[in-house]
Amino acid sequence: MVISEHSSSFSSLKSRWLITGGAGFIGCNMIKRLLDMGATSIRVLDNLSVGSREGLNRVCTFAEIDAPVLPTTDSSSVKLVAADIRDPAACLYATRDIDVIVHLAANTGVAPSVENPRLDMETNVIGTLNMLEAARENGAKRFIFASSGAPIGECEPPIHEELAPHPVSPYGASKLSGEGYCSAYYRTFGVETVCLRFGNVYGPLSSHKSSVIAKFIRQALKGEVCEIYGDGYQTRDFIYIEDLVDAIIKAAETRAAGEIFQIATNKEHTVNEVAAIISGQLRMKADRTLTARNMSPRIGDVRRNFSDTSKAVRLLNWKSNVQLDEGIGRTVEWFLQHVK
Q1: Is pLDDT above 80 for 104?
Q2: Catalytic hit among 171, 181, 185, 202
Q3: Which end of the chain has less neighbouring CB within 10 Å, N or C?
Q4: What is the mean pLDDT of residues 115-125?
Q5: Cβ neighbours of residue 222 under 8 Å, at least 6 residues apart?
Q6: CA separation (Å) from 295 to 215, 226, 227?
């Protein structure tokens, strides 16, 4: 069922937020935005395998808390629970007295899922089930699941929500399972789930991210050769982090539930284009260049990928605003200012 009104029955600023994987790239940007908006209650559940306390410190002051008692006297707006979503007790503990859950924690990417399919499944399937069960048990009002275009697999783009999924990689299979459980928990138990299929996200605070834009900038600044898998003409839909955070907030506030949305730019760019833009920005801003070489294609990668975002425009009242040139320019500037 979809309710097509854009307004919500609760305020995002007054809501109590839990962000799983909140010490990572997207999570830290999400926390920064919420604090800038005036939110006063944010909890983070993160095992710190990718994200870090140092990364979290870049955007906020936080207090670290442990089970079994959630303190009520600490005045910090952000509280960290350093635990793993594969632990159902930790999920149950972290979701107590929470209104909105933004479930970002995952084993992310095609290559890691090919290397270790079991870890990918345990994190992305069992971990998501643990979080949904905890949301149901503790009565969270909204559950936002970070998915991707990977469940669809190889198809003629643009990707849209009505396409039948045929995942190519274990990562795509595990994200598809998460989407399925979100649908079931909404329709069976009434947990208000919203699945957001993120495009390829980039932007500030991505210094440890392994996706192509952050990796190429980092390697170029170190004078390393950037590796392009295949001929470089494979396409992706690259979305700037500020636009993505906007979509998450819209998903928290909308009255649409039990639905999947493509969250991207509705544009495709080749990896070669991205490398050329990064090289131009580095030359202009730092008198540096990017050197690349072609490698063998990676197993599990699709050839073309971009999204039709018309459903998000219609039901979330959301669309992306930052163009790729501008977004890469901002990202390069952040790396030059903050990464040694």
Answers
A1: yes
A2: 171
A3: C
A4: 98
A5: none
A6: 15, 10, 6
